[in-house]
Write a structure and sequence with these properties.
The chain contains 8 helices and 11 strands. The chain is an alpha/beta fold. Helix 2 packs parallel to helix 3 and helix 3 runs parallel beside helix 4. The mean pLDDT is about 90.
Length: about 230
Amino acid sequence: MKLLVVEDDPDLRRQLNTGLSDRGYTVEEACDGEDALYMGREYPYDLAIVDIGLPKLSGIELIQRWRSQGINFPILILTARGDWQDKVEGLEAGADDYLVKPFHTEELAARLNALLRRAAGHAVPQLCFGPLTLDTTARTVALKGQPVKLTSYEYRTLEYLVVNAGKTISKTELTEHLYHQDFDRDSNVLEVFIRRLRQKLDPDQTLQPIETVRGLGYRFVLQADDNGG
């Protein structure tokens, strides 16, 4: 999943980038509201973390402008302790949740995971599709109860397909949501990830969880169990 971190404090921005990247997220940064406005409008993100006190354009105004332009990815705002007015203004502007500084990266990651699940229509972190289970908190995958070892890129690819189950995802969209803007966009790289996922998730070729839609992209086709959505 690709996140946009909007924070003018370079130390906190670096801390957020490192902590979230270590948890498997693709992170891009903006240090002021104007840059963030442009990036959120021009590039696809799955979620944004926005500090309220930004230069050039405040976090509140940034959120208002994004929402007025139809940009609907989830937004988590960062506020200073005790500034309850910021929390109220941020939520009324269109933010989905808030976190008070200082905070632990573990709490931030839990909030982000919950927002991403909610946006995808899932209430619980364990997403079950018959014998296949994906835990979005632990970032693990199991097949018939046995762990499946995936690389970071393989997991990211699978997670994006799973949370968009039933939708046809183009190679371009998949690449844009999973990797930095300067990532090598050779479609052969993505095809390698998909081939490896099929081999690891469906060694007997009985599930066929990932369908190739010729000329359009890929689609995760398994139906979620009742307790997994």
